[in-house]
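Record minuted for completeness.

…
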Amino acid sequence: MAAAATMAAAARELMLRAGTSDMEEEEGPLAGGPGLQEPLQLGELDITSDEFILDEVDVHIQANLEDELVKEALKTGVDLRHYSKQVELELQQIEQKSIRDYIQESENIASLHNQITACDAVLERMEQMLGAFQSDLSSISSEIRTLQEQSGAMNIRLRNRQAVRGKLGELVDGLVVPSALVTAILEAPVTEPRFLEQLQELDAKAAAVREQEARGTAACADVRGVLDRLRVKAVTKIREFILQKIYSFRKPMTNYQIPQTALLKYRFFYQFLLGNERATAKEIRDEYVETLSKIYLSYYRSYLGRLMKVQYEEVAEKDDLMGVEDTAKKGFFSKPSLRSRNTIFTLGTRGSVISPTELEAPILVPHTAQRGEQRYPFEALFRSQHYALLDNSCREYLFICEFFVVSGPAAHDLFHAVMGRTLSMTLKHLDSYLADCYDAIAVFLCIHIVLRFRNIAAKRDVPALDRYWEQVLALLWPRFELILEMNVQSVRSTDPQRLGGLDTRPHYITRRYAEFSSALVSINQTIPNERTMQLLGQLQVEVENFVLRVAAEFSSRKEQLVFLINNYDMMLGVLMERAADDSKEVESFQQLLNARTQEFIEELLSPPFGGLVAFVKEAEALIERGQAERLRGEEARVTQLIRGFGSSWKSSVESLSQDVMRSFTNFRNGTSIIQGALTQLIQLYHRFHRVLSQPQLRALPARAELINIHHLMVELKKHKPNF
């Protein structure tokens, strides 16, 4: 439309120009004289104007000279005035032609003008319509904002009403007592699930009413009476039910764990009593404590009495000590002693009682053992008794915590109210038994049983027995130390001269010590205790002193060494069977055995080869001091030693071997001593060879009679015993 408007404006201008030109042509010279002509409007070309600036004329001239047509005209030398007229004429012709073209298209231009006008009208109406729309939209926007404000206010009122409705609903639901609740509490047996469900509902409503009463809610008065009557009814039924269960414990031959487990299904009953009727809850708890306390005391007193009837009849007495002689006689009216005192110092299979499988094995049944005529050591009875105590105590403690809703010190107090009398009775019985107990291994095993049971109780998270374990250990440890000190004293006070005939074989007291010490060391390795090691160290010192005292009774040093080696070897062998190789006892006796063995070998070689030994030592000392020339005077002695060794060494070695095998009870130890003696003999003869290689003795004729060292080694190997 803008293009059409431009075309219309151009058409109107052409028509006006055409009309003006026609008028000028028609008027011609008739239009008046020169005085009537309008002044010529030259615009920027008017040089008579005050605004004309000569500098600008130069600029225009210079610009026109740059024109291509002007340049062409200047080059051809055309007259510019003539050329200007020619151009003006051509322009007039073109103008006239254009005017005629516009006149011919005048109808179309008029039609176009009409169309443009119509379009302008349509656009004007559209403008008015859009303006109306804009005003309408403005009013709608304000209405939307108003609606949004109203909607926000309605939402706030809705939330407030919903909040009020929720609180009122909770209040009403908490106060209203449904008929199902009343029916279940009044008519349903307590064992039915619906009674438990409605009891929980009643407890919740009672708590809600108490809370609302504290806030001053008046509506609580309407339901308080109904809830109180229902609460009284529920408390009565629950009290009768729980007391019946507790009374059922008292029936003879009743496994009280079954009704006790059944009570756990109804533990909410006690919680309800605790929150609504504390007096009844206390009555039930006191009745439970009284009943179970008597039951446990009766059961354990009976079990303990029947259990002690299956103990070994032969037990250690105060005279059954390590240093007591086996042949010691007692009075006429005294009981016969053990068949062999060694049994009370030997562990044997008794150590299995603290093994993991045996420790938690089923408890002993006394009447079954009596029918089978089975007997057990005290530690086995102690294990059975305390495992039953541990198992029942753990179950009882967990039941108390869960059913009576207690924990911490309150749970400990309630547990000791139930089990206190039983634990005290057990402690008294143990104290009474230990007063006449002289079996150190049994007491030590009981100590380790307690230590392991204490760990089991800790794993089961039952701390209620910690005090009891400490009390038991407070009884066992002093008794164990006393028995050990009695054995130490018995060894210390033993007089070797009262032990009868002397013998180089291992002494029975040292064997007792070896068995006893290895037993305690092997047990102590599982849970080490420094106090035990100190007591064993004292006992070891006394035994070593005892062995030296007995050895001193022999007249010859050789017999003394044989006795010492046999005893050290026996004690070392027994200890190594049970104790670790790096234990203090093993290291100590190994050092003693090595020292005495070396001394015995020297004593063994002295009679047949004493002269050779003395000469080698003297010669080596002279050589070391630089006095080897003095060896020249020993030629006769050397010759005698060479010939004497060559003629008697085989018989001497044979006699030596037989003497060793007769002297030592341990063939392996005897073999080791023989091998050590032969090795030392070879080393001695090798040293003798080196002495004879000195210049002072090198020309000795008897050197030709020396036995070759390798030949000697081969011959001596034939005398090495094999087992």
